[in-house]
Amino acid sequence: MSAAQDSSPSTSEQPFSAESYFATQPPPPTLDADVRNVRSFVSQQVAVGRKVVLVTSGGTTVPLELNVVRFLDNFSAGTRGATSAEYFLRAGYAVIFMHRQHSLQPFSRHYSHSTNPFLDFLELEDAPQEQTDERTVIDHARPIITVHPSDPEHLRSVLSAYKAVQKAGTLHSVTFVTVNEYLWLLRAVSKELHLLGRNAMYYLAAAVSDFFLPREKMSEHKIQSGKGSLILEMDQVPKTLKPMVDEWTPEGFIVSFKLETDTTLLVPKARASLERYGHQVVIGNELHRRKFEVVFVSRSSSSSGIVGYDKPGFEETWLRIDEKASAGGKEIEEDIINELVTRHLSWIKSVNT
Ligand code: PMT
Fold this sequence. Notes:
CATH architecture of the largest domain: 3-Layer(aba) Sandwich
Number of domains: 2
Number of strands: 16
Mean pLDDT: 91
Bound molecules: ligand PMT
Domain DNA/pantothenate metabolism flavoprotein C-terminal: 51-106, 172-290
Protein name: Phosphopantothenate-cysteine ligase
Radius of gyration: 24 Å
Strand order of the largest sheet: 9-4-1-10-13-14-15-16
InterPro entries: CoaB-like_sf, DNA/pantothenate-metab_flavo_C
Number of helices: 9
Family: Belongs to the PPC synthetase family.
CATH topology of the largest domain: Rossmann fold
Shape: globular
Structural class: alpha/beta
Largest sheet: 8 strands, mixed
Keywords: Ligase
Low-confidence stretches: 1-11, 304-310
């Protein structure tokens, strides 16, 4: 049976709530193991009083078949998430890096297959022949591998930051591929981080599918192409920000992203998201300018935040970097993380005021 031929009733008239989603869609088989590892990482950070940020990164897929051959994907290389994770680590946070498998990762992103391909730095050199006595010659016929980076200083600084993070044990990675894996992981990891109260930050940079095929509507085998066009009716992915704020982690400092291709929509959409979900910050970014400018949208400090008491006001802060500075290696994520660290600190302090 293909998705196009499926006769099960559509749920489109009654969209999935987060609750009905988790009651009907199966968890990924690795969930329990992933949660155990996250729990152990979190308790190590709690023991030393370190703040923890969950960084989500990369796009989610929506498989069209149970034996998956085809899937829909969401655009994201994982640059924003991987870059931001490095700056959070530098700022003293422990990072849970929840990313799309094979997307960019902190540190190694500098030497990915497309940026500074690592093999291009390696050279093969003939090894010298060595004679130990009259009869024995050690034949080092196998060439020696030497490393010749184009910018040794850069490699040295990336490598030393990477080794320091490994030694400190402040980076923990968890992977997802499908939107289903993402949703289950997001809920489980948020609940684990709940333990940290206000010391936890959530930085949701992943590009998450808006539509999916519920398991019961998926074709078991590869959808056959012989019958002409393919018509899919997909269900809406439930919004997770609402349960995150209300149930999973009510004290966490939650930062979501809004991607648009029309800059004029960024602020109104970000405000609408804050009004609907009640979290702390939305960072708006336009597709083509996202490496040079972003806008922080949050509730203004003059607003009481009490529903029905006054109309919530909003404030916007634009962060911009020069395109020339960007070409010289400056990354806007450095400024984004500096700003968030400051805001997170005042959020933590505000608990007593
Ligand atoms: O990786 P790059 O190539 O550098 O690209 C980075 C980016 C442009 C993808 C990133 O900066 C970005 O904008 N990510 C959010 C994309 C978006 O518009 O998401 P959304 O409108 O579908 O969701 C809004 C927010 O809620 C996002 O923070 C998303 O992570 C989160 N979300 C959405 C749906 C859902 N079910 N769960 C979620 O957590």
